[in-house]
Every structure is written in C-alpha cells, then in structure tokens.
C-alpha cells in the first residue's frame, strides 16, 4: 500500500490542482472557510464533472469512505496529524504540519 503526498500550498485559501491517483487524473480543489475555520475538499474528473464537493477536512479521518460514486478514487484521502497535538488543520497547517495524503487501494 503506497501513500502519496498531495500538493497543498499552506496559507493559500483557494487552490486547485490536478492529481493522478492510481492512474486516473482528478481535479482537486481546496477551499478555506474563514467563517467556519475549516478546509473543504472537492474532487472532479478531468472534464470538470463533480465527483464529490465540499468535504470538510477533519484530521485523521478518511474523507472518501462514504462516497458511493464509481468515479471516485479507489483509495482514501486523509489529513494526517502525526504528532497527535494539532487537531484539525488551520489555514497554515494543511500541507505543512498536517500533510494531505492519498492512501492507495490494495
């Protein structure tokens, strides 16, 4: 089982990148909600069709576990707090102290 570090720019409140997950390219968007003080993740296919929108990024929680779409990645996306001290990522921590990773399916 491989773990891939996903590209996240700390402190950038809205960002979109293309990521290849197990041979399939996805458009990944991260948005920081200043009002709620949480990150939200969305995934789309390369044509822009939404697969999942507005998933709250909660530390050490599988984000795709309840997604029933056959278009969703086969693995899992997680924000990992390896220290156990930071809690959910703030605008500066995601991609820095708390990496966003993709855990490939087996």
Q: Can you describe this structure in just a few lines?
A:
This protein is 0% helix and 42% strand. With 106 residues, the chain is mostly beta strands.
List the helices and strands and how they pair.
Layout: E1 3-5, E2 14-21, E3 24-33, E4 38-45, E5 50-56, E6 76-79, E7 100-103
Antiparallel strand pairs: 1-7, 2-3, 3-4, 4-5, 6-7
Oligomer: single chain
Look at the structure and give the mean pLDDT.
93
Instruction: Report Rg.
Output: 13 Å
Range of helix content: under 10%
Q: Which structural class should the secondary elements be placed in? A: mainly beta
What is the β-strand count?
A: 7
Distance between the termini: 6 Å
Low-confidence stretches: none
Question: What's the SSE pattern?
Answer: EEEEEEE
- Shape call: globular
Taking the sheet with the most strands, its summary is: 4 strands, antiparallel
Strand residue content: 35-45%
Strand order of the largest sheet: 2-3-4-5
- Our count of helices gives 0
Number of domains: 1
């Amino acid at each position: 089982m491989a773990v891939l570090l996903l590209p996240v720019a700390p402190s950038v409140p809205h960002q979109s990148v293309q990521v290849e997950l197990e041979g399939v390219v996805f458009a990944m968007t991260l948005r920081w909600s200043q009002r709620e003080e949480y990150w939200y993740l969305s995934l789309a296919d390369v044509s822009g069709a939404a697969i999942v929108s507005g998933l709250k990024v909660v530390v050490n929680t599988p984000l795709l576990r309840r997604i029933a779409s056959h278009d969703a990645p086969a693995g899992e996306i997680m924000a990992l707090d390896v220290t156990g001290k930071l809690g959910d990522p703030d605008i500066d921590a995601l991609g820095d102290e708390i990496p966003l990773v993709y855990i490939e399916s087996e």
